[in-house]
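re: ur question from earlier - yeah i can do the single chain one, its not a big deal. heres the input i used so u can compare w yours
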Amino acid sequence: MLAPAHLIAFLWLAFAAVWGGSALFTKRARKRPSWSTWVARLAIVAVIVAANLRFGPGGDALTAPPRSWQWVGALLCVIGLGFAVWARIYLGRNWGMPMSLREGHELVTSGPYALVRHPIYTGILLAMLGSALAVALAWLWALALFFVYFLYSALTEERMMSEQFPAAYPAYKARTRMLIPFIF
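and the output i got, formated as tokens:
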């Protein structure tokens, strides 16, 4: 029988493959993140990989979620990654690494972008919450870390978008929440 932790691992591997493959078909970067941003990203990944070695599938007696939460978590992970992939596909060739701009960048405000301004971040955070519920509650600290990183990225990107689209972006920002539909 398929365990929720195995489904979660498969989902994240599939997500990484889709993400990496789709990155090959984006517009050329006009503005890239700084070296310090790349170092911070690598540090986050290193911490998560190290935590995975300690709190792998099933965690331990202190971090393992109740069995009843595990399938709920797997469902949240499916929904979150699906939302992020939908947003990535909808964004098309305009997609880039966080805090970057593409040549000929267009403002996308429909589809998942009509629900929240940063649906990729929203989807990944929901998937991480689901992973914590399905695999190990210790992953909640990683969720908090990513929330801070995504919030910083979103604020940085919003400054860049306001500069690039001075008439359209403020109106979009006024009618659409940042990360959580109808709330935040």
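The radius of gyration is 17 Å. not sure if urs matches, ping me
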